[in-house]
Amino acid sequence: MSLEKILEKIELDARQEVEKILAEAREKAERIKQETENRAREQAQQILQQAEAEARLEASRIVTQAQLRKRMELLKVKRELIDKVLKAALQKEELRQASLKKEIVSREGVIEESLPSERVMEELSREVESEIIEWLKV
User: Fold this and answer.
1) Lowest-pLDDT choice from 3-12, 16-25, 94-103
2) Which residue, 25, 45, 104, 106, could crosslink 111 as a Cys pair with Cβ 3.0–4.6 Å?
3) What residue ranges do the domains of the chain occupy?
4) Within a 10 A sphere around the Cβ of 124, how many other Cβ atoms?
5) What is the pTM of this model?
6) Where does the chain have alpha helices with state H?
7) 135 band by pLDDT with thresholds 50, 70 and 90
8) CA 33 → CA 23, 46, 122, distances in Å?
9) How many CB atoms lie within 10 A of CB 11?
10) Within 13 Å and on the Cβ side, how many CA atoms surround 1?
């Protein structure tokens, strides 16, 4: 073998080795790139799921608050109507002249107390509010 052939052989082997190393490096770089993309996709998916869950919770909270406000407003209107009905009832002459009494039951016995008309509304509104609401089916 001549020196030229030996040098060509060395150069060929070196090129092949360089190509092999470059191919391995490209494969490794591609694997790293794929792994990184997969991890990024997984993280993005997790972030998206977390954001969706938080959004659902926030929407639920907003709906619940709106429902509560609606119920409070409805209760306020109901109480105003009950007060209006009781005031109208107390304006009637027969009711104003009637002797309204309240019985208080205790260990000592039953005590009967006369109620001035201004206290009648207060007492009645507390006692019959739920009954009136049930009767009106509101």
Assistant:
1) 94-103
2) 104
3) 3-136
4) 19
5) 0.48
6) 3-91, 93-97, 117-136
7) low
8) 15, 20, 77
9) 10
10) 8
pLDDT tens string 23-35: 999 999 999 999 9
- Interior/surface letters 77-96, b for 16+ CB within 10 angstroms, e for the rest: eeeeebeebbeeeeeeeeee
Report pLDDT digits (tens) over 45-89. Answer: 999 999 999 999 999 999 999 998 998 888 888 888 877 877 787
Q: Which two tokens stand for residue 63?
A: 């709906």
Question: Of 78, 95, 93, which is closest to residue 135 (Cα–Cα)?
Answer: 78
Which tokens go with 52?
Answer: 């969706």
What's the burial of 54, exposed, middle or buried (CB within 10 Å: 0-12/13-18/19+)?
exposed
Residue type, 94: E
The letter for the amino acid at 42 is: E
